[in-house]
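Please check these two lines:
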Amino acid sequence: MYSTEFFTANHVCTGVTGLALAIVLAGCGTTHNNMVKPTRFQETAQFYGTDNPFVKEAVYFVMTDRFVDGDESNNYPEQGGSLPSFDLPLYGQNGAKANVGYLGGDLKGVLNNAQYISDMGFTAVWLTPIVDNPDQQFSGGESIGYGGAFKDGGKAGYHGYWAANFYEIDEHYPSTALSYKNYTDEMRQQYGLKTVFDVVANHGSPSFTMPMKQPKFGQLYDQNGQLVADHQNLPPEQLDPNNPLHRFYHNTPDIMQLSNLNEDNEDLRNYLINSYLYWIEQGADAFRIDTIKHVPHHFWQEMAARVRAVHPDFFMFAESYDYNANFIAQHTLTKNGGISVLDFPGQKAITSVFQSPDSDYSQLLSYLHLTHGPYANPYELTTFYDNHDMPRMDATDNGFIDANNWLFTSRGIPVVYQGSEMGFMRGKAEHQGNRNYLGQENIDRAKTHPIHSQLSAIANVRKSHPALQNGLQVNLEFSGEHAAFFRVIQHGDMAQTALVLLNKGDDAYRFKITKYLQSGLWSEVRFKEESQDLKEGSALISNVDGHSVKVWVHEGQVTDPLMLKELTQLMAFK
C-alpha cells in the first residue's frame, strides 16, 4: 500500500514503496513558478525537470555590435562630431587591443549567420540590448583605458545598456526591410531560432559630470519620441523632486554616473514594463534581465505578473552577479516574480574544473542543488562558463571541449558566448579583448576549429534528446577525471533515459555502470556506433576516449525500483 501527502508549494511525495513507486502523481514536483495543483492518480509516474518549455533551448549569446557587420550602411562612422562614437581603440602592450566604440555588428550580420548558429545545435539567440543609445561617446566620468574597469569616460553605447529610448531600436542595428520584427520572424520561421531580448530596469545612460550637456545622455524619450525625463547633467543629490523631468530618477547614485531609475515612481514602472511588452509584440521570445539585484523585488513581481498575464509562461532569466546561491535564488521565488537566474555559482565551479587539468569532477556537485536547494527550480537556471562582463574562460582547447560536454548534458539551459566555439580571446577581460569584434572571417575559421566540432556534436545530441533537455539528473560517479550520471524524463507520452559518461583525462577510460540500470536496448547517440541489449542485472560497459563523452539512451518507461525511488525523491525536492 502507499500514501501520499499534498502540499501547495515544494510538495513532497511520501510513503511510496516498492513496485507501487510506478504509480505516483502526475507532475509530482513544483512547476516553474513553484505552484502545484493536486492531480488525480495516473498509471504512469511523471518525472521531469520543469513545466516551462524554454528549458529545451540552448542559447548562443551575441554582443550585437561585436558579432558581424552585415550592413555597412548603418555604421555611421562620422556620428558624434567632436565626440565620435565609432571605432575607439584602447591599446595595451605587445599589440594588445580593445575597443569602446561601435564596430558595425547588426541584425543582418546575425541573420546572415543564423544557419551557422543553428547548425551548432543552438535554438535561441540572446542579443545585447538593441534599444536606442546616445550618439556620442561619454565626455564625463573617468576615462577608460586598456584593461580598465568601472570607468565610462570615452566610451560609446555600443553595448546597448545606455538606453535613451526603451521603445526605439538603435539606428546601428536595423537595415532596409529588416526591422526587429522582421528579424525575429525570419530567425524563428527560417532557422528555428528564438530570440532572447536583453532588458534593463535599474539605469539609463550616464547622466552627469559632463563638461557640457550632451544629447540623449541622462534623458529618456517615450514611444512617440517625446522627452519624458532629463537628468540635466546634475548630480543625483541636486535633482528636484518637484521637477517633472526629474521624477523618473532617484536622488542617490547607482553605478558610476549612470542615471538611477526610480522604480517607486508609477509612471516609470509603466514606462519600462510597457516597453518590455512592446518588444514581446515585436517577437521577443524570452527576456534576459540585466542587474536584477539593483532593483527591489516588488518591481519584478509587478513586471512578471503583468507580462505573464498577457504571455503565460513567458521565460525570463536574470543577471544577479553573485556567487552565493542563497542570494541569487531569491529572485526565482514566486513572491519575487519567479524569475530564473544565470548560474554564477555554477560558472565559478565550471571554470575552476575545466581550466585546470588537475581538477576533480566532484567540484561540480555543490552547485547543482538537485535536492534541498534554494532555487525554486534548478532545472530552469541558465548555465554558462563566461560572458561579456567577466574574463573569458582561460582553458585549453580540450578544456573548452570538456566544459561543453558537461554544459550540454547536465541540468540547466546552456548559454555560450560568441567566439567560445573557437576559444576567442580566451582569458581576456572586458577591456582587454573580451568584447572584441568577432567578424565573418573568424566565424568562417571557427567552422574547422576542434572546439566548434565537438561543441556542435554534443549540442545537437541535446537538441534531439528530451532527456538531456528536461530530464531529472541522477548522479552516479564524480571522481577525478571521470563523471557519470543519468538524465531521465517521463512526461506525457515521452519516456527516455540518457546515461552520460564524461572523461576529461588524456587517456581512454572504461566505465562499468550497474546502479539504476534499466534492462533493454541502449543506444550510444554521440558517435552512433554502438548499442547494447542488456539483461536484468547486467552492466553497461563503455570505453570513453580522453576529452570525450558518450551518451547512452534507453527509450521507454522506468521500471527499476531503485531508480523509481530516486526519481520520486528528486521530484519532491526540485
Observations:
- The chain has twelve helices and 24 strands.
- Residues 266-281 form the longest helix (16 residues).
